[in-house]
């Protein structure tokens, strides 16, 4: 098992390119199931989650061609609407095949995604929505089993804002008979990116980016080309790494437009952040003070502060001046990084869904264990500023969602190496 060894204390500076978004690419790969014509995707990040999703699609009969960041999917031979446990156990997003399979094949057997360290993460809203569209859905022996004649358009209301729930139901509705309206829909930019891809495939979707999405079902979708949006969470992670180290970094191929809440908090922390847009490119430049100020946050669905940035902000608050209150409202168990940060010398107290963080003058390197994807990122950020060496173990979590993180950080002046543990 690989681990990262980080020698802290090196200020980040220079330029880095941001990759395509994992959380946009995963649903969009599943959208290929909706058509018998090729779907060409560019800016697809090179991540373990993407490799797993491609394997999953391949074993369903989808032809996959991959050349760097370009992927072409051809689901004309789709013949096995099954997502087995072996392939879905590491990846929550595998549930995103459910809606497209039910819509295109009239049946699906999808293993419940594996347990995850950040919370229970049920899929009851995905199921409730498909049932409202006329599908018979049961959960048996760990599998969601769906059977349906052509899905029917329906008025859907989700009990809470769910990102993959919205995406699953939006994809299913594209081939349904009649109009579907999803109320209380997720407004995340990744939902909008998926809607844009579906529209390019001939779907009739309006309202993506608002909390009411309307989909007029069509008989079939066709092939298309689509470029995956930049990863706003990778962007935010590099901004935090720069902020923690008092650095000056230019991020290429990304935009402040996707993460207003994060940029706002980093400016409150004392950073100077400028987004620039030319005809051909977009960049963000961050200049951080020597020591940032602690900032309080409360996670909530987009456009509020993203839960996927909470762990990275905890890392920067650990070394900031002052104290912060951090409230996690999306997942019931997403403070696993706190105990590891405490091993590095952080001052953190947890009470239910609230963390109280008081900045310390310095962290000290130690061996720590990554427990989930963003927890891993927070430990890397803390390692960049801790005195001495930090060893981050179990980085397979990191490889699920960050493309070449250590080489990108090395290019910015960090001392970070991957070694066999
Ligand atoms: C692949 C992907 O895009 N993952 C993102 C997606 O996850 P994901 O789509 O799984 O997260 P949801 O938005 O669905 O979860 C929000 C909350 O709703 C609950 N819930 C959800 C569905 C359901 O049927 N029943 C239910 O109770 C969840 O347990 C959670 O407490 O959005 C999360 C919230 O922004 C992000 O952290 C993840 O990075
Ligand atoms: C929680 C995350 O991903 P997933 O939903 O794929 O587990 C994440 O991207 O931070």
Automatic annotation (TrEMBL):
It catalyses: phosphoenolpyruvate + UDP-N-acetyl-alpha-D-glucosamine = UDP-N-acetyl-3-O-(1-carboxyvinyl)-alpha-D-glucosamine + phosphate. Coiled coil: none annotated. InterPro entries: Enolpyruvate_Tfrase_dom (IPR001986), Enolpyruvate_Tfrase_sf (IPR036968), MurA_subfamily (IPR050068), RNA3'P_cycl/enolpyr_Trfase_a/b (IPR013792), UDP_GlcNAc_COvinyl_MurA (IPR005750). Transmembrane segments: none annotated. Its main location: cytoplasm. Pathway: Cell wall biogenesis; peptidoglycan biosynthesis. The active site is at residue 116. Keywords: Cell cycle, Cell division, Cell shape, Cell wall biogenesis/degradation, Cytoplasm, Peptidoglycan synthesis, Pyruvate, Transferase. This is UDP-N-acetylglucosamine 1-carboxyvinyltransferase. GO terms for cellular component: cytoplasm. UDP-N-acetyl-alpha-D-glucosamine binds at residues 92, 121-125, 308, 330. Its EC number is 2.5.1.7. The keyword Transferase applies. CDD domains: UdpNAET. Cell wall formation. Adds enolpyruvyl to UDP-N-acetylglucosamine.
